[in-house]
Amino acid sequence: MKFNLMLLLAVSLFLQVGYSTGADNSAYIEILGTGCIDWAAGVFQSRGVGPAPGKKGKGFEAEREKAFNESKTKALNNMVALVMATRIDAHSSVRDIASKNDRVMAEVENLINESKVCKQEYLSDGTVEITLQMKMFGGFAQLILPQEIKQIETIKTVSGGKEVLPGSDTVSPPEIVAEKFSGLVVDARGTQALPALVPVILDEKGKEVYGPAFVSREFAVQQGLGRYMTDTESALKSPIAGGNPLLVKGLRAEGNDRSRIVISNADASRLLSMSENLSFLKKCNVVIVLE
Fold it and tell me: What is the pLDDT along the chain (291 residues), one digit of tens a residue?
C-alpha cells in the first residue's frame, strides 16, 4: 500500500485522548495529532474510525467488513504521519530521512503495513474504531538509526586501569573517586527537553558524555538509546536503569528539537569514572525523566 506524503501532512487531527499502550502512569507518552508515541515502552499507536454498518440483515457482514477495512486504512494513514513526525536527533526527523531515500520510505511503509491491530471496538453510534500498534525497536530502529552507531565489542583501557572514552584519548580525571553504576537516570524536568530516538548528553563544555559514540548498535536496535519517563522514582526502579543507577540533574536542553541535555561537569566525571560505567552506556541503560 503506497502513501502520498503530501496528503498525509494534511490528515485531519485525531482525537487526542484515550490511548492505552499498556505502560504504567510513569511512561512518557507524546500525543500528536495522528496518534501517540509511548517513549517508555517504545511503541507507536494510532487510531482510525470507519462508518457504521447498516442495520443487521442482508449484506450486514459485508458492510461491517468494509467499515473495518476503512477504519484500518485511516489508522494506517495516521500511523504514517505519526512515524514521519518522529524526531531522530537534533537535526532530523524520520520524514527528513525517508523523503530523501526511496528505499527507506518503502521499507518504513512496509513496516507500518505490518502494524498490529491491538484494539477493535464498535462504538455506540455503530462506527468501528481500530487501534494499531507498531514497535519502535527492532526492524524500524535498524532502518532509521544513524549508521554512525556501530557495534562496540570492548571498552578501551590504558595502563593503570584508567579509562579512555569512546572516540577520544582523554583519560578520566584521577581526582574523581571511581564508582560503579548500573545505569543512568537523567532528571531533565524543567529543561523543556523533548524525546528523540537518538538523545545526546553533554557536559557544560559541550563535550558528549553519552550518545552515538558510546552505544553498541546491537543494544540501540534492541531497546533504544534511552527510555523516557515522567517520574524519577519509577525511573530509578526501572529494569533499564538496573539496581544502582547514577541520578544526575539536567541543567538545560539544547538543539533544534531540544533533545540534547546538558549535565554538570561533576556529574559527567562521575559517570565516566570507571570502564564499567562505559559498559552500561554501551548497553543503552539510560532513562530520561521529562515533564
Answer: 444 443 343 333 333 334 556 556 899 999 988 799 999 999 999 999 988 766 665 666 787 788 889 999 999 999 999 999 999 998 999 999 999 999 999 999 999 999 999 999 887 777 889 999 999 999 999 999 999 999 987 655 444 444 455 555 444 444 445 678 999 999 999 999 999 999 999 999 999 999 999 999 999 999 999 999 999 999 999 999 999 999 999 999 998 889 999 999 999 999 998 888 999 999 999 999 999
Is 0.70 surpassed by the pTM of this model? yes
Task: Report the alpha-carbon distance of residue 184 to residue 287 in Å, rounded.
Answer: 6
3-state secondary structure of 235: helix
Is 202 buried (19+), middle (13-18) or exposed (0-12) by CB count in 10 A? buried
Pair 86, 37: CB distance under 8 Å: yes
Residues counted in the chain: 291
* Residue in this structure with the C-alpha cell 593503570, named with its chain if needed: 160
**Cα distance from N-terminal residue to C-terminal residue, the chain:** 37
Burial string for 218-254 (b: 16+ CB within 10 Å, else e) reads: ebbbebbbbbbbbbbebbbebebbbeebbbbbbbbbb
Q: Where are the domains positioned within the chain? A: 5-144, 159-289
